[in-house]
Amino acid sequence: MAAPAASTASVSQPAYPPSSLNDSPTDTSPELVNELLMQVEQMQQEIAELRGQIEQQGNELRQLKRDGDNRYLDLDRRIVYLTTEVDKKPVSLSETPRASAQDAYNQAMTLVRDKQFEQANQVFGNFVKQYPEDALVANAWYWNGEVYLVRGEYPSALESFRTVIDHFPDHGKAADATYKYAVTLHKSGDVEAARHWLETIRERYATSSPGTVRQAEAYLKKMASTK
């Protein structure tokens, strides 16, 4: 389903006065900062778990090579080609062809964790320009929007989240980007547009992202209670 068009005018000149949930554009919301840092910590834990799984799989492959040397020569030749490089030196991100992209992304995430939000936006902005085809570019756009939202830079946050929605609709961050797009619209004062996008989440991600759907429903209730 095509993403509904967002009104640029409604962002720069809100049709509705900011509700009581709005933050001052010039103030950093402690609630948003804490939420952002919790997401970073969760992501780092997930990365650590994935690295452990990769290491375990590497060990299993080497064991398979040792056990199959005499029986599966063709398979052995392919495994030797792969495992010889692994055995020469430890695998690290800095030794892969995409090391520079990974390093740049890690630098931006470190800045987020250290609450250096302005610098983080600069690094994320450089990343999406320098590595537009990288596997992490959708993540970079999403986190760029998160940081802009924390800083109260709502137009820039909307642009970042909308980029994920429009250009990476099947990405794992698409549902979260849609939710944060709606939140940012609400904080910008566009209540009706925010409600529309929150309801869109219920329709679009009911199966693929039930957790995000629950967040959207909770925010809708929160909006209704402050009328």
UniProtKB/TrEMBL annotation:
* Functional note: Mediates coordination of peptidoglycan synthesis and outer membrane constriction during cell division.
Show the PROSITE patterns listed in the entry. TPR (PS50005)
- Each TPR repeat occupies one of these ranges, namely 138-171
> Is Signal included in the keywords of this UniProt record?
yes
Q: What is its main location?
A: periplasm
Identify the species of origin. Answer: Oceanobacter antarcticus
The residue stretches assigned to a coiled coil in this entry are 33-67
InterPro entries, per this entry? CpoB (IPR034706), CpoB_C (IPR014162), TPR-like_helical_dom_sf (IPR011990), TPR_rpt (IPR019734), YbgF_tri (IPR032519)
Q: Gene name, please?
A: ybgF
UniProt-listed NCBIfam families: tol_pal_ybgF
What is this protein's record name? Answer: Cell division coordinator CpoB
The family assignment reads: Belongs to the CpoB family.
Region feature (Disordered): 1-30
Any idea where the YbgF trimerisation domain is? 34-84
